[in-house]
From TrEMBL, chain A:
Compartment(s): Cell projection, Growth cone; Cytoplasm
UniProt KW keywords: Cell projection, Cytoplasm
Organism placement in taxonomy: Eukaryota, Metazoa, Chordata, Craniata, Vertebrata
Annotated Amidohydrolase-related domain residues: 67-456
Organism annotation: Salvelinus namaycush (Lake trout)
Molecular function terms from GO: hydrolase activity, acting on carbon-nitrogen (but not peptide) bonds, in cyclic amides
Name of the protein: Dihydropyrimidinase-related protein 3 isoform X2
Automatic annotation (TrEMBL), chain B:
UniProt main location, coarse: cytoplasm
Name of the encoding gene: LOC120051082
Gene Ontology MF annotations: hydrolase activity, acting on carbon-nitrogen (but not peptide) bonds, in cyclic amides
Keyword Oxidoreductase: no
Localisation: Cytoplasm
Source organism: Salvelinus namaycush
Sequence similarity: Belongs to the metallo-dependent hydrolases superfamily. Hydantoinase/dihydropyrimidinase family.
Name assigned to this protein: Dihydropyrimidinase-related protein 2
């Protein structure tokens, strides 16, 4: 086991120039923009203001009135992800370099334990990989790929001791990662109580399995089969179901990879109904579409394979950018998970075998700036919110991350809103041969990136150092999600109606359930039939309830007139 | 033809003849498309003539409608008479139930066959036929419920469709571990149903969540009927409706949602229809006429009488909302889901709400309720009333125009409707065997004055003259036009084709472990799943390397545009040359 290696993190030599002054910048937070200088020391912002008194001889960066924004937080990456004996081509070093080059100063990677294996062991494994190689700060989500009591115990430990507050469950990948509705219910209930965030990969895996079989039978084996077997309705359906369960269990929900209009619509509808749900479109869904699956170049088509797939509807990116701007979708990730063409070619004869994932960690900030800010959909403050602040709030890292303020980490980006560059695999910092945004001309790019108080990007040169990235523990009960959840919990107390015991005649019936087959035993299992203590009446000691005592329903239910309030109905008739 | 002697239609006297001939004079005939004044002459249970100054044989019985409305008799598309439940049988059998139906102006019912899981569908169907043939007082037909699923049942379904006149099958998304089907099973059943030309009906509630909620609520010590509705919130209904719409769209199968009980479920249906899905929604008498506040009644027996699934919504604005959607066409058909139990039967669940037998009354009240809530309030006109109580049901289930219309050649199932009479619904006066009526005390305006079933007068001057066992089984053909015209057009569009590409001949990553790597199944559960997994691994198709991906017809510019009706594609992928070109 390599579980120990991360603990003995190697000493990083103290560089004397840990002091840095950014002069003449316009600080952009999610709430306001203002001109001020920023002085940082030991990786933390120490002073903000005009005419700061700072020690002599420190390095000064002239912002020349450009925007200084909190470094981006890429809330969804899969660096160095093991996949069927191979590993994604961008490891933590390569991946976080690409992130920094694009103005992202923190990434949150997904730990994917093999089903049946220990979550904590997998977590330790990921920590050791990341500690060794990452060039920027990072956190980890843990994916729950199977569920039982010992997993529950591990989740508890991860939440309380290991600094993980978000867990992803899969509604797709039948017979592999996929959770049943009952398991989802249990997981949501548990995480709702423990203060975690539930993330879902939302697609109906059962129907996908059927569709895959059907499409392979038709002889369609290329990447277009991937999107044909995963129509966007199946994504929307799973989102709808996840929201229903989250609402029942009063648990905050986070939908990873919002790829289609219909899924986004379900999320915005749910938010309008009051559900605590966050949607994460990714770079790919905001920047390109699924028409490329029909490319005659197999390798190119395969490079777009990800799940849920990119929508073949070319108006999707614009629509998702609009919802991101309006606040219906909240955070952006990249779901960066790149494979080489040779790896993708594992599925050359069967699209279901193509390893899934697209690039996007480097392009995310520029892409959103180009699609949403230059088009006037959102302003610079909203840009900061969706690329950084909201993610920090959900992860409970705010205001340490996601804000330019005294005491916050010195992760900053000087943003050049006029820079124009063309995305191409020839120049990108990823190791993959294809870039799904190939040829796209994007306006807006980082001109300087400061990570942990150090200059890592300046004059187009990247000075990233592998292994300096720290693990940032996330604590449970983030206010951003849980203030509302807690308030609802207090409302959701259910009460029985105090009635006398029914003492009329009772029919004979066979104790078997409907249908009378052996399957019935499940329905009438001992847990479901609490043995009633006949000495207890249904009346509570507190005496007959007043009107306010009458049943209060969970927050998700719309009830205009409380049943207790209508005396003609509840009186004995 | 026995028309020997002809009398003019001026004859006013009434003759009580045993003959099957009947003349309804001066009625305003109301169909779903128009209303007009005409006389109707009926012989041998069939409408023979419609018009003025009809020439009819002498001695026929004459009913003078005095300008009142004459409508097609109601069709109650959802009843559960004489339904077995754990050794008990629902209180209203086919005799009592159809009597009540006729008393309310309904002249045909469609009952649900509920086979015990594992029992042959055909055997169950025959059992129901036997019960109904011996007792039913009006024409009837049968839906068959699919209570479990394996491939072999396909043949039974085929036999039911081809030999027994069944064209609708109900699947349950609720009742976990009893009737509930998984999503994959639903997908398979829908495929079979579409191929047979039948209608997929769905009891839409998420059974998995309900099972969890039931346990939670019982643990809280809530054992009364309020637990029933607390454990089955309307979101869970809406979720299942949404899921079944998704699966129906994928399989291009027409969908029919039984028992639409809540606003959110109705909204999902309305939205799906706007997106083009072929889906029908059936609110029932209970959801149109009352609400779920009664579950909190302090009278246990009363509260228990309202227990049905999906439950009545505790939101008291629900009935009005559903009536509005019924009026505007977003919901199309109405049933009663009539399934009644005596209080002593309900009391089986006196200490545990999950054991209370489920079902409410409504077959007798359905027409009057809808008239009162929709027509009197001006939501719909009399024609739409006929559509939602009779015609649409006949169209969906392929009974039209034999049923659901007043036309020459149609069955003589008619109702002479009095829009002005008002009555108060009460268990004291209803035609049911049960002690409670969930509409107790509701005053409704509009009631049948005369009911004609199979050409015979069965309700007149408040007296029911029903004959036990005279009801005929009406068989229904598959592929109803009303439903399948669109489905057929779509299946022609949904053919998919691959992209013709040369074979990929670049490097391929080696040392790949099989996709399913760990023996997860042991952790993840049952042997059933393990089998599925093995099956899944097996059919990784062996590619014939001598075949290229090119079709013989050569690559056309647009022959590879895969388009399915459910996907919105503004610019066809094939049409953008900069994207599909190599490189």
């Amino acid at each position: 086991m390599s579980g120990h290696s991360y603990q003995g993190k190697k000493n990083i030599p103290k560089i004397t120039s840990d002091r840095l002054l950014v002069k003449g910048g316009r600080i952009v937070n999610d709430d306001q923009s203002f001109y001020a200088d920023i002085y940082m020391e030991d990786g933390v912002i120490k002073q903000i203001g005009d005419n700061l008194i700072v020690p002599g001889g420190i390095k000064t960066v002239e912002a020349n009135g450009k925007m200084v924004i909190p470094g981006g937080i890429d809330i969804h990456t899969h660096f160095q992800m093991p996949y069927r004996g191979t590993t994604t081509v961008d490891d933590f070093s390569q991946g976080s370099k690409a992130a920094l080059a694009g103005g992202t100063t923190m990434i949150v990677d997904h730990v994917i334990p093999e089903p049946g294996n220990s979550l904590i062991e997998a977590f330790d494994q990921w920590r050791s990989w990341a500690d060794e190689k990452t060039c920027c700060d990072y956190s980890l989500h843990v994916d729950i790929t199977h569920w039982n009591d010992s997993v529950k115990q591990e989740v508890d430990t991860l939440l309380k001791e290991k600094g993980v507050n978000s867990f992803q469950v899969y509604m797709a990948y039948k017979d592999f990662y996929q959770m049943s509705n009952s398991e989802l219910y249990e997981i949501f209930t548990f995480l709702g109580e423990m203060g975690g965030i539930v993330q879902v990969h939302a697609e109906n895996g059962e129907i996908i399995a059927e569709e895959q079989a059907r499409i392979l039978e038709m002889g369609i084996t290329g990447p277009e089969g991937h999107v044909l077997s995963r129509p966007e309705e199946l994504e929307a359906e799973a989102v709808f179901r996840a929201i229903t369960i989250a609402s029942q269990t009063n648990c905050p929900l986070y939908v990873t990879r919002v790829m289609s209009k219909s899924a986004a619509d379900i999320i915005s509808q749910a938010r309008k109904k009051g559900n605590v749900v966050f949607g994460e479109p990714i770079t790919a869904s905001l920047g390109t579409d699924g028409t490329h699956y029909w490319s005659k170049n197999w390798a190119k088509a395969a490079s777009f394979v990800t799940s849920p797939p990119l929508s073949p509807d070319p108006t999707t990116p614009d629509y998702l950018n609009t919802l991101l701007a309006s606040g219906d979708l909240n955070v952006t990730g990249s779901a960066h998970c790149t494979f080489s063409v040779a790896q993708k070619a594992i599925g050359k004869d069967d699209f279901t075998q193509i390893p899934e994932g697209v690039n996007g960690v480097e392009e995310r900030m520029s892409l959103i700036w180009d699609k949403a800010v230059t088009t006037g959909k959102m302003d610079e403050n909203m840009f900061v919110a969706v690329t950084s602040t909201n993610a920090a709030k959900i992860l409970n890292l705010y205001p340490r991350k996601g804000r330019v303020a005294v005491g916050s980490d010195a992760d900053l980006v000087i943003w050049d809103s006029d820079a124009v560059r063309t995305i191409t695999a020839k120049t990108h910092n990823s190791a993959a041969e294809f870039n799904v945004f190939e040829g796209m001309e994007l306006r807006g790019a980082p001109s300087v990136v400061i990570c942990q108080g150090k200059l890592v990007l300046e004059d187009g040169n990247l000075h990233a150092i592998s292994g300096v990235g720290r693990f940032i523990p996330c604590t449970p009960f983030p206010d951003f999600a849980y203030k509302r959840i807690k308030a609802r919990k207090q409302l959701a107390v259910l009460r029985a109606v105090p009635r006398g015991m029914y003492d009329g005649p009772v029919s004979d019936f066979s104790p078997m359930s409907r249908g009378g087959t052996p399957s019935a035993s499940a329905r009438t299992s001992p847990t479901k039939q609490p043995v009633r203590n006949l000495h207890h009446s249904a009346f509570s000691l507190a005496g007959p309830p007043t009107t306010e005592d009458l049943p209060i329903r969970p927050a998700g239910r719309r009830i205009v007139i409380p049943p207790g309030g209508r005396s003609n109905i509840t009186s004995l008739s | 033809m026995p028309l020997m002697c002809f009398y003019s239609s001026q004859i006013k006297f009434r003759l009580f003849s045993q003959s099957d001939r009947l003349l309804i004079k001066c009625g305003k005939i109301v169909n779903d498309d128009q209303s007009f004044f005409a006389d109707i002459y009926i012989e041998d249970g069939v409408i023979k003539q419609i018009g003025e100054n009809l020439i009819v044989p002498g001695g026929v019985k004459i009913i003078d409608a005095h300008g009142r409305m004459v409508m097609p008799g109601g069709i109650d598309v959802h009843t559960r008479f004489q339904m077995p439940d754990r050794g008990m049988v629902s209180a209203d059998d086919f005799y009592q139930g159809t009597r009540a139906a006729l008393a309310g102006g309904t002249t045909m019912i469609v009952d649900h066959v509920v086979p015990e899981p594992g029992v042959s569908l055909v055997a169950a169907f025959n059992q129901w036929r036997e019960w109904a043939d011996s007792k039913s007082c009006c024409d009837y037909s049968l839906h068959v419920d699919i209570t479990n699923w394996h491939k072999g049942m396909q043949e039974e379904m085929e036999s039911l469709v081809k030999d027994h006149g069944v064209n609708s099958f109900l699947v349950y998304l609720a009742y976990k571990d009893v009737f509930q089907l998984s999503d994959s099973q639903m997908y398979e059943v829908f495929n079979v149903i579409r191929n047979l030309g039948a209608i997929a009906q769905v009891h839409a509630e998420n059974g998995d969540i309900i099972a969890e909620e039931q346990r939670k609520i019982l643990e809280l010590g809530i054992t009364g009927p309020e637990g029933h509705v607390l454990s089955r919130p309307e979101e869970v209904e809406a979720e299942a409706v949404n899921r079944s719409v998704t699966v129906a769209n994928q399989t291009n199968c027409p969908l029919y949602i039984t028992k639409v009980m809540s606003k959110s479920a109705a909204d999902v249906i309305a939205l799906a229809r706007k997106k083009g899905a072929v889906v029908y929604g059936e609110p029932i008498s209970a959801s149109l006429g009352t609400d779920g506040t009664h579950y909190w009644s302090k009278n246990w027996a009363k509260a228990a009488a309202f227990v049905t699934s999906p439950p009545l919504s505790p939101d008291p604005t629900t009935p009005d909302y559903l009536n509005s959607l019924l009026s505007c066409g977003d919901l199309q058909v109405t049933g009663s889901a009539h399934c009644t139990f005596h209080t002593s039967q309900r009391a089986v669940g006196k200490d545990n709400f999950t054991l209370i037998p489920e079902g409410t009354n409504g077959t007798e009240e359905r027409l009057s309720l809808i008239w009162d809530k929709c027509v009197v309030t001006g939501k719909m006109d009399e024609n739409q009333f006929v559509a939602v109580t009779s015609t649409n049901a006949a169209k969906i289930f392929n009974l039209y125009p034999r049923k659901g219309r007043i036309a020459v050649g149609s069955d003589a199932d008619l109702v002479l409707w009095d829009p002005d009479v008002s009555k108060i619904i009460s268990a004291k006066s209803h035609n049911l065997a049960v002690e409670y009526n969930i509409f107790e005390g509701t005053e409704v305006r509009g009631a049948p004055l005369v009911v004609v079933s199979q050409g015979k007068i069965v309700l007149e001057e408040g007296n029911l003259h029903t004959t036990e066992g005279c009801g005929r089984y009406v068989s229904r053909k598959p592929f109803p036009d009303h439903v399948y015209r669109r489905i057929k057009a779509r299946s022609r569009l949904t053919e998919l084709s691959g992209v013709p590409r040369g074979l990929y001949d670049g490097p391929v990553c080696e040392n790949v472990t099989p996709k399913v790597m760990t023996p997860v199944t042991s952790v993840k559960t049952s042997p059933a799943k393990l089998q599925q997994q093995q099956q899944q691994q097996a059919p990784q198709p062996v590619r014939n390397l001598h075949q290229s991906g090119f079709s013989l017809s050569g690559a056309q510019v647009d022959d590879n545009i895969p388009r399915r009706n459910t996907q919105r594609i503004a610019a066809p992928p094939g049409g953008r040359s900069n994207i599909t070109s190599l490189g």
